[in-house]
Amino acid sequence: MIFDEKFDVIVIGAGHAGCEAASAAARLGVETALITLNLDLIGQMSCNPAIGGIAKGHIVREIDALGGIMGRIIDRTGIQFRLLNRSRGPAVQSPRAQADRALYRTEMRRVLEFTSNLHLRQGAVAELIVENNNVIGVELQDSRRFAGQAVILATGTFLNGKIHTGSKTFSAGRAGEPASIDLAENLKHLGFPVGRLKTGTPPRLDGRTIDWDAFEEQNAEENPVAFSFATEKIEQPQISCHIGYTNDKMHHKIRENLHQSPLYSGKIKGVGPRYCPSIEDKVVKFADKDRHQLFLEPEGHNTNEVYLNGFSTSLPSNLQQDLLRMINGFENVQIIRPGYAIEYDFIDPRQLKPTMETIQIKGLFFAGQINGTTGYEEAACQGLIAGINSAFYVQKRDPFYLKRNEAYIGVLVDDLIQHGVDEPYRIFTSRAEDRLTLRHDNADHRLSSKGFEIGLLSGLDWENFNKKRDRISMLKEIINSTRFKRSDIEYASISQLLNCDLGDAITLSQLAQRQGVNLDLIYRLLPQNIQSQISTNELETTLADSLYSGYIENQRVVTERIYHNDNLRVPEVFSYKNISGLSNEMAERLERAKPSTFGQLRRIGGITPSAVSTVLVHLTAHKN
Amino acid sequence: MKDTIIALATPLGRSGIGVIRLSGEDSLSTIRKLVRDKNFNPKPRFAALKKIYDFETNEILDEAVITYFQSPQSFTGEDIVEISGHGSPVILRQIIDLCLKLDARMAEAGEFSLRALANGRLNLSQAEAIRDLIDAQSAASARQSIRQLRGELSNELQPLKDDLLDVIVVLESSLEFVEDDLPAVQARNIKEKLVKIIAQLEKMAATFQAGKLLREGLKVALVGRPNVGKSSLFNALLGHERAIVTAIAGTTRDQLHEKLTIKNIPISLIDTAGLRETSDTVESIGVERSKRTMADADLVVVLLDGSENLTAEDTDLFDQVKDLNYLVAINKSDLEQTKIKLDEKIKLLHISAKTGEGLDKLQNAIIEPFATNNLENTGFLISDARHFDLLRRSVLEIEVSSHLIDEQTSEEIILIGLHNALRFLGEITGETTNEDMLTRIFSTFCIGK
């Protein structure tokens, strides 16, 4: 076969998964092509111009700790940073930032353009070239052929994308961009199980037509918490957002016009996410709620465009404007881009390995929304894992993947490949069994050594991390050994401040766990020479470790009790068919799911308890 | 590290001896607490006779043979302690309950064998045999679960699990969807709900005692010197003629066993041979047996003849039962009474086996020390020790969470105990998955920007 160009890895799609994948592969030293329909829309945020949030922010920091790029780019282009759940424990706090959409895109493209071994190509991939169940390249619509030993599909909502507004339906990958129809056909033809999902996006408004005083202002935080462990300071000027509410009158009008919504007329067959409902859904399913919250989020420094978060809709465009004008402050509002719903194909992720490689075609990887997820962060981390493993595949290095107790990324990938998806999959902290361990602030402690070993984390970052780790272990030592006795001057003032007796003596770490004690107080009580050496972030991490250590140990004992066999590994080569007493049906199910641990096996749907115990006996015997 | 598991190794029911087996790191420390001897260092594989105490009341429960098998020289490869006690299910269960309180866990079907396999004490072909065993056991327990699912346990537990899930949903949502416009979490409200759940779980767990009673019943021995009317009473309680009643002392030479129920509690009633020092060989064997029967019974009914004075034999009898659980019934209230004087502390009942007078009082007195609840009105019963263990653990977990709410601890920490409790309850009624929880969240609150 004749190829126009030859690469090691080809990434299709330059969204959040594709960018992360291409960057990782190229930086690991393999020649990488990133093919996109439109070079000007690399790293485009198709929906909400924000990154992070509870659990999602954790993932971005994990990506960063492994040496990915998303965290660094949002730190340079974010215009409103907030640390969510500040009043709660450190494990459930998470950074979120609104991006300047255009800046994010430009910065992503700049970073990719300056990555060696990375080659940007514009074009539409029509077909994968597969030989003997090995992918060997791709063919474009304009009949160019690129060779690649590994191909990563990161096509987002483009596979057979179909946009709905009111009664109008048209084929598109995103508003204003064509869908990938040939490629979708090709994947079906190759035998991949295809499903259909739906998502929606709200209208964008002209900021000049909004009466801002009618809305409640939400300021940026004074000390923004960055995503990347390498970021020292957020440089972008920070802006405010505004909050408003829908009203009864508007709800009434929505109900009157439900027949015009393709969601309710039965036109949309795909399943949408329950945690990102359209305004139609909100009004119908929560009829007793008399108002719903709306966020007015400016799209950037150099535009008047405003993203109306909370008003995702597929009602006809003219009706969207009428509805909005019923809100105080929106009397004269003009819609720049109407909201819409989009249906797209996804491939059942249960046919993936934890490396994101497909089981049936060697060298072919899927990452991002194609696997049924939603969210930039969820997409990016899959891109990172696929990017790393595509390079490792070419270089014949051992595959890399994360376990559920190591990272949210591990939880996400495991959930996808074990359970598949019924609706667009989003990460939540409650999905992680080890929520207390997987904090955003310790992502580097969990993953930086892996990032360095993989070869993505730079020597400088690794060195900085090691210094930080040393400072934290020193701090740990100090907060456990610094004690205040009744006779100490500090004791009296602390006791007075907290208005309670502290016993005969109290250490700094014990003090930190008391109600009403904040970080500043502990910081002030540290020896002065220590204060100057450490940052408050480092103190926070140290205190979080000590806050949770007891709970984590207790929890370990409880889960050990319940799931004591979960870590039992299923050998690479393990024939379920040869196990006597296991029905054919069970054996087939297990062969298909290929669980790598007993824990995964136990969670596979449709396996009888008797089959589980049968396999357990064999796994236990096999271990010896 | 593996936790310590416990199970009854001999079949449940009446037998001469009952063996409880503990396996795991804490086996030895557990038995040390039961025998009240911190320095108890049994020589591996040698039997040691020890008294077993209830460490909560300091009462002696049983005298048992303790055998210690040191890791790895044991069936499971772990430290094993075997407690061979007298066969009374009531006492065996009491001993198991004490071990559970000391943090042992009821073993799952086949778990001992699985541990043996894991520690290389069994080979694959032996493992195959065990698999069949596990299959059989899980089939049996599956049948039982189905029964329990259809029955009242699940009906009673499901709403509690739902209530618990509701609390979890509120707390999880407040953590997970901070930017959404959710109603503020009312700590007091949550606390009240938890207190209610705890109370109901405890009520359920309390039926365990009653459940045991219903399932295993009581063994009641009827003793007395010859011809005080034991056989007449036996027949009167049974409501039909079973024992041969004659005026000749010593007619009942062998024991008679009969089943009857008093207020739904199955009673195994034993009419003992007349307790009399004798040279008649047949009768003397019977007497020997009677003594053993008394020691093994949950309750001994000592029968006296109210128309006669106390004899030396009667006094002897009191001597024999003084360490046992017993009550005294004075028979022949239809005849003229001599004034029998006994220690004031001893409970007396006047009955007539012949006329039936006082029999209902006797029946009540027999079950009274055992029936903690009003058995006729108990809505449902926990009958499985494993379920009891899980209910108890759930309560402990919820109590911890409830306490953390008072301390205004952050939700992710409060939730630990609640999720654990839900898992434990799930082992009884079926797992609540993360997906179930999310479904509840999205149907309760309008989430999403």
For the structure shown, list the relevant keywords.
heterodimer, A: 624 residues, alpha+beta, FAD/NAD(P)-binding domain, Elongation Factor Tu (Ef-tu), domain 3, Arc Repressor Mutant, subunit A, 4 domains, 6-stranded antiparallel beta sheet, 5-stranded parallel beta sheet, 21 helices, 18% strand, B: 449 residues, alpha/beta, Gyrase A, domain 2, Four Helix Bundle (Hemerythrin (Met), subunit A), Rossmann fold, 3 domains, 6-stranded mixed beta sheet, 13 helices, 46% helix, globular
What is the third-level CATH name, the topology of the largest domain in chain A?
FAD/NAD(P)-binding domain
Instruction: Give the name of the CATH superfamily of the largest domain in chain A.
Output: FAD/NAD(P)-binding domain
Q: What portion of residues of chain A belong to β-strands? A: 15-25%
- In CATH's first tier, which class of the largest domain in chain A applies? Alpha Beta
Helical residue percent band of chain A: 25-40%
> What is the total number of structural domains of chain B?
3
